[in-house]
Specification:
This protein is an alpha/beta fold and 300 residues long. The protein has a single domain, classed as TIM Barrel, CATH 3.20.20.370. The protein has 13 helices and seven strands. Helix 9 (222-231) links the parallel strand 5 and strand 6. Helix 9 (222-231) runs parallel beside helix 12 (271-279). The longest helix is centred in the middle third of the chain and has 17 residues, at 118-134.
C-alpha cells in the first residue's frame, strides 16, 4: 500500500500513526450529550458526529455550536431500536423507500439498500447536512450511521462531501484492493471504483488507511481493550470509533448494548488511557484538520 498523502499535509512522516478518536451517535439520546461534552473536555476524543433526525439533536447541536467543537453529520438512514424510533426529515412519502411501516426509518442497512430510491437518499442526506449547518455547527465531515450508504449510495455521499467541501469517512478502494483483486471484479464494479478513486484524487479527499472500534457487546476491561486496539494501529491515518453515553434510565430503556456505550464513556475519559496514547507516540488529530487540508489542496 502506498504512503497516505494526508500525512504530509499534517506535517507527519509516512511512518507516523495518526488517529481520529471519534464519538458516534451524538444526540441519539440525552445520555450521549453530556458524555461527549466531558470527553471533548478531557482531550482524548478529538471529533464526533450528530444524528440530525433524532429528538435530542437540538440539544447536541447547541452544545457543539456554542463551544465550536469538531463535529460532523452522522448521516442517518436507519433506526435500529424497537421502541425508540425516528424517521426522515426530508419526506413523508412511503414511495421514497426511506420508511418502514411505522413511518420511521428501516431497522437495517440491508432494507435501505433494497428499498430506498437514490434520489430520495440524496435529498435526505442533503437535508440533514443543511439542518446541522443551520444550527451553527461548523460541520467538519460527514459519515454514515450503520454504513447505510454503502454500497448503493456512495456516489451521492461523495458528491455531497465534495459540494460542501468536507471529508467523508472513507477508505479508498485502491488502498485495500490490489490490481489483481480489482481486475477480478465485474466490469460495473470496477468502473464504480475507478470513478470513486477519480473523485478522491481530484478533490483531495482525505482517506483512511484503517477503521477500528470496540465491540459494544463486550464492555468488560474496556481500557485494556482500547489499549490493545490503539497499540495495533498501523502506520498511516486511522479512525477509532466509539459510542459514549452516560448511564441513564433512558439509555438503558433504549439500547440493549448500553453497557458497552457506558464503558466507552468511562474508558475514554480516563487519565490512564490518555497517558497510554501519549506514551505510544500516537498522533491524535481531528476531522477539522482533515477538512482544512482538503480545502487548502482543492480550492474553490
Amino acid at each position: 500500500m502506498s504512503d497516505n498523502p494526508i500525512l504530509k499535509h499534517l506535517g507527519l512522516s509516512p511512518c507516523d500513526r495518526a488517529v481520529v478518536v471519534h464519538a458516534d451517535d451524538l444526540g441519539m439520546c440525552q445520555a450521549t450529550i453530556q458524555a461527549a461534552s466531558e470527553l471533548y473536555e478531557a482531550g482524548l476524543v478529538s471529533s464526533g458526529a450528530v444524528m440530525v433526525p433524532c429528538s435530542w439533536f437540538p440539544a447536541a447541536a447547541n452544545m457543539i455550536a456554542e463551544r465550536g467543537l469538531d463535529a460532523g453529520v452522522h448521516t442517518t438512514l436507519t433506526c435500529e431500536w424497537e421502541s425508540y424510533r425516528w424517521g426522515p426529515i426530508s419526506t413523508r412519502d412511503p414511495e421514497s423507500g426511506l420508511m418502514a411501516a411505522d413511518g420511521c426509518f428501516p431497522r437495517t442497512s440491508e432494507e435501505v439498500q433494497q428499498r430506498a430510491r437514490p434520489e430520495a437518499v440524496e435529498r435526505e442526506l442533503r437535508a440533514q447536512i443543511e439542518r446541522a449547518l443551520s444550527t451553527g455547527i461548523d460541520v467538519t465531515h460527514i459519515d454514515t450511521h450503520m454504513g447505510a450508504v454503502i454500497p448503493s449510495f456512495v456516489e451521492a455521499y461523495l458528491d455531497l462531501a465534495i459540494e460542501y467541501r468536507v471529508p467523508p469517512m472513507f477508505i479508498s478502494p485502491e488502498r485495500y484492493l490490489d490490481r489483481d483483486a480489482r481486475d477480478a471484479l465485474p466490469e460495473s464494479v470496477r468502473s464504480a471504483i475507478e470513478e470513486q478513486v477519480r473523485k478522491v484524487e481530484e478533490h483531495a479527499i482525505p482517506v483512511f488507511d484503517h477503521i477500528t472500534s470496540l465491540p459494544l457487546d463486550r464492555p468488560e476491561d474496556r481500557i485494556e481493550q482500547a489499549k490493545r486496539q490503539l497499540d495495533a494501529l498501523p502506520e498511516g491515518l486511522s479512525i477509532f470509533i466509539l459510542h459514549p453515553a452516560q448511564d441513564t434510565p433512558e439509555l438503558r430503556a433504549i439500547a440493549p448494548d448500553w453497557r458497552g456505550r457506558v464503558a466507552d464513556y468511562r474508558a475514554f475519559g480516563s487519565d490512564e488511557l490518555a497517558r497510554h496514547v501519549r506514551d505510544a507516540g500516537i498522533h491524535v488529530i481531528g476531522y477539522r484538520e482533515l477538512r482544512d487540508a482538503m480545502r487548502s489542496a482543492s480550492p474553490v
